Structure formats: C-alpha cells, structure tokens
Amino acid sequence: MRFLSSFVTPLLLAAGAAQAASSWGFDDAKLTVTGKKPGGSKEKDVREFDGKSPFLSEPVKFDTTDTFKLKLKTQENGKGKRAHQAFLVFREPTSGLEAPFPLTVKDSGKATVEIKQSDLPIQLAVSNTPLKASLVIASFGSSQGFQKEIFDVQVIRDPISAPATYEKPLRYGKLQEIHHIFRADPKSPPKIVSLVFVLAILATIPSLFISWVVLGGNISHLPKALSAAPVAHGVFFGSLIAMEAAFYAYYASWNLFQLLPVAGIIGTTTFLSGTKALGEVQSRRLAGER
C-alpha cells in the first residue's frame, strides 16, 4: 500500500506538469522595417526576439513609405508546428480598437506577415499614441494559446502628403423628409383648337343628310324598323350618344381610369344591341326591301 501511494503521487505530479507545459509559443522572431526616403533607401530597423523575451522598450517607428515585415516560427511544446490561428494585433490604447493581421504559416511553423501603413484602419493610422503590438497564437487541441504584447508601434505620418481623415460609415436610419414635386397635371388645349375640331365634327352632320338624299336613303323604313326591334335600335342609338358623352366628360374633367370602365360598359352594350339591330336590317334586305 505504501509502495502504491509513493508511486501514484509522482505520476500525478508528472502528468500535471506535462499538461501545464502543453502550450503554444514562438521562436526565432525577426522584425524588419524598411522604407525609402528622398535621397534613397533609409537604414533598416531590425529587431530579434522570441516568446520569452521581455517587452521591447524602444517603439518601432512605422513611416508612410515603410514596409513592416515579421518572421517567426510557431511552436507547440517547444517544437515547430503549424498553428491554425496566428495573428499580429495592433491596438490603439485610448479607444481599444484593434486591427488583426493574420500570419501565413507553413507546416513547419514558419510564419510571415507583411504590413504597409496603407493597410492600417484609418482610426489607427491617425493615432497620436503608440499602438500596442501583440501576438496571438493558438490551435485545436488542449494546448494553451499564446497571447502577449511584444512592442509598441509609433505611426509617423508624412507631413507633405494630405492628412488622413476619418469618414463616418453610412448607417441606415431616419433621414430628413423629402418633398417630391411631381409633374404638373396635363392641361387642356386652347379653346380655339377645341372649337375648330367641334365645328369639324358638326360639319359632318349636314354631309350625312346630303349623302342620304344623293344616294337615296329610305327614311320611310324607320317606323317599320322601330316596330320590329324597338329595344335594339333604341339602345344602339342611345349607346352611341352615351359614348360621345363619356368622351366629353373625359375631355372636361374625367381621367383615364374613370373613362375606361364606363367606355367598356357602353361598348359592350353597343355591340350586343347593334347585333340585334343589324339583324333586323338584314331581314328586311333579304325580303327585298331597300
């Protein structure tokens, strides 16, 4: 019993130590900042560190023309391995806004990221305080992820170039009332034009009577036609007058949506009554009456 107790205790301690040591980290990190100046290329800023290095005291200066490049090797339990999540995060300390930049990681754990100042969000690019740069490394499994602030980044703007300005994004919400002016209602033509067309229509009535006299119109059949089909002839003639009245109402005050239903009813009535009236006329023609 004593032997079992003395054996299990170190085993549990070793298992706990192994579990505690299971974590992600990085090694062989190299930060390089290169850029150009009017006279040519400026001197590179190179920093080397690893996951156990203390916070870099001197901020990294990030100019407008600079290229920020970071290389490192992600590790799990001290061995190079690909992490499924590896980010370099820039944070603005005043507002707390963050901008993550993913690292491209190979199966061996070698990871790189390259950033230009134009890649920074405008809120971070115009910051007057140094940005906090931290590394976030994690993956699937029980190993503990890595997150640590590594250095500060001082963003330097070019005084000659136009200053960066922040534009608020478009947000959906209540806007000001819109007063839309529709097209003015169509106006009637001048009265003189309407009178000319009215007179032209009225002039056809005498022409109709003259044509009847010349061609030999037989008005004597009117009483016989009305006695044979009084409803058909009366409704047919009345529907013609009603259609003209509907057109006049449209000219005077109605709109098209008011005219169409009325014209449809009158047109149907004209068709049905006209069929009966013309049938009566045809029967007289077949009987030899002209």
Describe this structure in words.
With 290 residues, the chain is α+β, with helices and mostly antiparallel strands. It has seven helices and 13 strands. The protein starts with a helix and ends with a helix. Strands 1, 4, 6, 7, 10 and 11 form a six-stranded antiparallel beta sheet that branches. It has a five-stranded mixed beta sheet with strand order 5-13-12-8-9, with no helix packed on it. The chain is 38% helix and 26% strand. The chain is rod-shaped, with a radius of gyration of 48 Å.
Q: Identify the overall geometry.
A: rod-shaped
Q: Give a short account of the largest sheet.
A: 6 strands, antiparallel
Low-confidence stretches: 1-19
Mean pLDDT across all amino acids: 83
Distance between the termini: 140 Å
Helix content: 25-40%
Number of strands: 13
Give me the Rg, rounded.
Answer: 48 Å
- Percentage of β-strand residues: 25-35%
Class of secondary structure makeup: alpha+beta
Number of helices: 7
* Helix-strand topology string: HEEEEEEEEEEEHEEHHHHH
